[in-house]
Write a structure and sequence with these properties.
four-stranded parallel β-sheet; alpha/beta; binds zinc ion; 2 domains
Length: about 450
């Protein structure tokens, strides 16, 4: 199947030259982009999509999410909490849901499906999901259900096999029911890799190894996951780092910093990307760049937790590979990358008195496309150019809320009453058309997730 996006009003390519093109065509054959140019010939059996009025980008890549937390949005007791009561509160809620039968693998799959539909509707084509909550046993197929949901929705998924391995008997804080042994984590990681991981370019599913954090996992697991990843091409390494709580924990328990711990355990390679990185020591920032690790900036939870601003400008200056994400909905309440880019564009103005140091809309969009793709090790995604995967997101810039916009790229980030994308293509397949998900029924997905959550609000 071929697609020709004809006369796109404004195309942001995110290519090496950062080109932006107007009134341009994009031709997709199969899963790849094969041509970008004016008045491209239309091959036989090609669907033509009118690009007039559209701003088109590479699909957004959410470099950090916990999709099951869709079931934990806007918890009243956690609206205004700091990290430690938040962690206790989320764990308590999750365990309550589990005991009530509302945290079964089927439910997690339904929640993930809802989060994925929310994602594609806001222009996201790839999600990196980290699942570390396994009440009731490590063999329960929470991640398998999530992968199945991604296949139905038509979203690219990086499924991170998360874990909590530091039990209370070893100085951790998680209850025993969610703590796993290192052997269990490795065994399941290996099984997931064998069953689902596709190392080839344009893969729709990849497995990454994603311990929760150096404050929640035994450090031997970091060594073991680095070894396992090295044996499997395309398997990435992902963890939370410098989210304040681990910074304090490492100082008190290990007398060092979270990054120094990663260095000791083999987590300083291009396979690694880190979530948050809010309060790193300044002298370590060049080390992130030298090691080739990526950082996913998560403005939503960083602000919600009251942590303040990650030193994104300093990391960009140092050459750190910067991506963007939302985290899960228990500490952000949504998976809207574009909405969070708007928050970041405004919030980072508090970080410097010099406006030239503020993050521009173009810098942020690049972080959320090519930057996030690079964090995930995806050199095949995040750019609109021949040879790249056909992941595209287009927004209608002719709507009433965008009247008067002079710069469509800044306008996409800074304006809008809805971030809903008009057109989304993943791997050459139209997933969102005219602002509606066409692979699954949005209302049915929401209804089923609510039913399994046993949530009484809504349209059941
Ligand atoms: Zn997270």
């Amino acid at each position: 199947m071929s697609l020709l996006l004809r006369r796109i009003s404004h195309l942001v390519t995110c290519d090496d030259a950062d080109r932006e093109l107007v009134d341009v065509d994009v031709l997709v054959e199969g899963r790849r982009i094969v041509a970008v140019g004016s008045d491209l010939p239309c091959p036989p059996d090609t669907e033509v999509i009118d690009g007039e009025g559209l701003l088109v980008l590479p699909g957004l890549v959410n470099a950090h999410n916990h999709l099951y937390q869709i079931g934990l949005r806007a918890l009243p007791e956690l609206e205004r909490t700091t990290i430690l009561p938040w962690l206790r509160g989320v764990t308590t809620r999750c365990l309550d849901m589990w005991r009530n039968g509302a945290m079964e693998p089927e439910t997690v799959g339904a929640l993930a499906r809802a989060g994925m539909v929310e994602s594609v509707l806001t222009g996201v084509t790839t999600v990196a999901d980290q699942h570390y909550f396994f009440p009731g046993g490590w063999t329960l197929p929470f991640i398998e259900e999530t992968i199945e949901a991604a296949t139905e929705v038509g979203l690219r998924l990086h499924a991170g096999r998360g874990s909590i391995t530091l039990g209370r008997d070893r100085g951790g804080s998680a209850p025993d029911v969610v703590v796993q042994t290192i052997d269990e984590v490795l065994k399941h990681s290996q099984a997931l890799i064998e069953s689902y991981h596709d190392p080839e370019p344009l893969a729709m599913v990849r497995i990454d190894l994603a311990p929760c954090g150096v404050h929640a996992d035994r450090l031997e697991l970091y060594t073991e996951t680095a070894i396992l990843a090295a044996l499997n091409p395309g398997v990435g390494l992902h963890t939370h780092l410098y989210e304040v709580v681990d910074t304090r924990f490492c100082a008190e328990r290990y007398g060092t910093t979270p990054w120094r711990i990663l260095l000791r355990h083999g987590w300083h390679s291009e396979r690694v990307w880190l979530a948050h990185v809010v309060d790193p020591p300044a002298e370590e920032i060049p080390e992130f760049a030298a090691a080739g690790v990526g950082v996913a900036h998560l403005i939503g939870p960083d602000l919600k937790m009251g942590w303040g601003l990650s030193p994104v400008r300093e990391m960009l200056d140092a050459g750190v590979k910067m991506g963007f994400g939302t985290t899960g909905s228990a500490s952000n309440d949504g998976s809207n990358v574009l909405g969070d880019l708007r928050v970041a564009a405004l919030a980072h103005r508090m970080s410097s008195a010099d406006p030239r140091r503020w993050l521009s809309a173009r810098e942020l969009l690049r972080m959320a496309t090519r930057g996030s793709a690079r964090c995930l090790g995806r050199t095949d995604l995040g750019v609109v150019a021949p040879g790249f995967g056909a992941d595209l997101a287009g927004w209608d810039m002719t709507t009433v809320d965008r009247v008067g916009v002079h710069d469509p790229v800044a306008g996409l980030v800074l304006t809008g009453i809805s971030d809903r994308a008009h057109l989304v293509v993943v791997n050459g397949r139209v997933v969102v058309r005219d602002g509606r998900c066409v692979t699954v029924d949005e209302r049915a997905v929401a209804r089923e997730a609510r039913r399994l959550l046993r949530q009484s609000i809504g349209d059941r």
